[in-house]
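### Sample
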Amino acid sequence: MAQEDVFKKLVAHCKEYGFVFPSSDIYDGLGAVYDYGQNGVELKNNIKRYWWESMVRLHENIVGIDSAIFMHPTIWKASGHVDAFNDPLIDNKDSKKRYRADVLIEDQIAKYDEKIEKDVEKARKRFGEKFDEALFRETNPQIQEHIRKREALHERMSNALNANDLNEVRQIILDEKIVCPISGTCNWTEVRQFNLMFATEMGSTAEGASKIYLRPETAQGIFVNFLNVQKTGRMKVPFGIAQIGKAFRNEIVARQFIFRMREFEQMEMQFFVRPGSELEWFKKWKTTRMRWHQLLGFGEENYRFHDHEKLAHYANAATDIEFKFPFGFKEVEGIHSRTDFDLSQHQQYSGKKIQYFDTELNESYVPYVIETSIGVDRMFLQIMSAAYCEEDLSKDGKQDSRVVLRLPAALAPVKMAIMPLVKKDGLPEKAQEIMNLLKYDFNCQYDEKDSIGKRYRRQDAIGTPFCITVDHQTLEDHAVTIRDRDTMQQERVAIDQLFGILKEKCDMQTLLRKMTE
Ligand code: GAP
């Protein structure tokens, strides 16, 4: 199945099984805003817990905060967001559709990549087993030409964007003959900068309302609390402050479901270090964060670092952790060495001294910062797209299939479904009894409707690792049948073993322990 179709199915699955709904659904939705349903919120909370505990609980020198969404407007001046948090936009005069100019060019760059991959695939078919892909890529003149054009275009775009040369950005679109996907024409307006922050007013007009912003990142709430936390927590550099919270961006190209949203959640951690030690810490955090991702078991080959060649003026190193989504490798998390830029800017704009006295060095300095920043929703999408699986179970000429979410057990919304075989003979009561035994530690679901087969499929579709069936024999031998989601194997276990099984397989601790091994 084409990856595009897989993705469409995944989006439909998210709605059908109570993971993600379009916001304001009965009013036909609101662009790039989504609600999480009964299963989605459980998965989302588990992702946040995995992040929070691996940051805050496992690191004695990292603490958490929860800062307000509204902040003093000068913060966004100091951070550079008022002046530079912009997207270059262009309109097509025929379709009246608006696009991000850089995204139009990036899509054109991606076309060269597609051409390269197509040529490689053709050659693979032609040469069969003898095919040496690396050699082919290096020596085939057509591929070399695509690579040359791709790199030239990439460089021209980067130069134009870095120089904020919007005429040149438009000229690239014209030179590449990039057309509007709707009208198919090249009838483009000028390119304009558009600030991504949502603004609103605080206070009534009578008392002089002031313009404030909905935060576009959670990081600034951490920077402006640096002194508060450092002093009250008696924190010693190196130390970190972590935060999970909502962020808002007026994204123009909001596509790919919850990949790019206008209201989303971030999990950010700012790690404050001695100036000069930041690149060593950057390396450490790269390793730690990649391990956090890979422990989920979706295959190391599906992750990669994308080190930034062009750095923001305040950064001295930056990388993205990318995951192979159905629509290609895309950023899930950013790790940035941001020097002392943010704290120094807030020192200057607030007029307050933001420094740390290092007793070992006997000197004061503005600490340097390593930032790890990941979107909860994007991580959610990453997990869902990696876990979604359509399995053909046909056997002996009998057609059968299932959709199963192979979620890591610790993140699954429901850990165990408890099912009485029939709705009578005391089986529901026994099932409820087991439910009452386990529900204080694990999210369990009681299900008595439909055939056992249908109930299994329903639980597979939401990624429940275990189903247990209570039958007549249970009343005598105090044992149940436990079915494993992935292998579909069933075995008989004593009721008093259930807690141990769930603890070993589904507890977050199991995952967290691996983080420190
Ligand atoms: N403080 C740094 C910062 O905000 P960013 O690269 O703009 O950096 C960090 O964002 C992460 O937040 C991204 O890697 C992505 O996971 C998530 N993110 C950013 N914009 C998003 C959006 N519009 N919708 C969903 N997630 C987004």
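Residues 217, 219, 249, 251, 260-261, 264, 266, 268, 331-334, 371, 373-375, 377-378 surround glycyl-adenosine-5'-phosphate (CB under 6 Å). This sample (Glycine--tRNA ligase) is used throughout the tutorial notebook.
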